[in-house]
Amino acid sequence: MSRPCPCTSKVPYDRCCGPFIAGTKVPESAELLMRSRFSAYALGKVDYLIETTAEAERGALDREDLATYCRNIRCVALKIIARTAGGPGDETGTVKFHASLQVNGKRQLHVELSRFVREEGRWRYLDGDTN
Ligand SMILES: [Zn+2]
């Protein structure tokens, strides 16, 4: 029995975000990438968070900061509110989501409109407007 996926899809991790994070499958849509990044935050998969960030933004990331952030939050639930483009035939896309988090023990609703771009054929997170 596989554990449920942290992205709260109700699908087992091995058949949801697991293969993306393990690198055995590539997410075909911006939404799937977004879900897998939520799971990566939940599981502290810092390498995956870095490699799925657009090249131009990667330099701003600090591995230790990301790892600390992952340790200090609990990803409670993810709800996709809206999306534009981001499909197999697109080069850009947006996903708006509500992420229920627990930050240092306090419940927090993180609302973000994320922008995604395709680089080297793969979806990557560019940036986002929060709350
Ligand atoms: Zn998932």
Word description of this protein:
With 131 residues, the protein is of the alpha+beta class. It has one domain (13-130): Roll (Nuclear Transport Factor 2, Chain: A), CATH 3.10.450.50. Helix content is 30%, strand content 37%. The protein has five helices and four strands. The chain has helices at residues 18-22, 30-43, 46-51, 55-58, 63-72, and strands at 73-85, 92-103, 106-119, 122-130. A four-stranded antiparallel sheet has the order 1-2-3-4. The longest helix is centred in the first third of the chain and has 14 residues, at 30-43. The termini are far apart. The mean pLDDT is 96. The protein binds zinc ion.
Question: Which secondary structure elements does this structure contain, and how are they paired or packed?
Answer:
Layout: H1 18-22, H2 30-43, H3 46-51, H4 55-58, H5 63-72, E1 73-85, E2 92-103, E3 106-119, E4 122-130
Antiparallel strand pairs: 1-2, 2-3, 3-4
The site of zinc ion has 7 residues, from helix 2.
List segments where confidence is low: pLDDT < 50 over at least 5 consecutive residues: none
Rg: 14 Å
* Sheet with most strands: 4 strands, antiparallel
Shape: globular
What percent of residues are in strands? 35-45%
CATH architecture: Roll
H/E element order: HHHHHEEEE
- Class from secondary-structure proportions: alpha+beta
- CATH fold type: Nuclear Transport Factor 2, Chain: A
CATH class: Alpha Beta
Task: Give the beta-strand count.
Answer: 4
Count helical runs.
5
Bound molecules: zinc ion
- Distance from N terminus to C terminus (CA atoms, Å) equals 37 Å
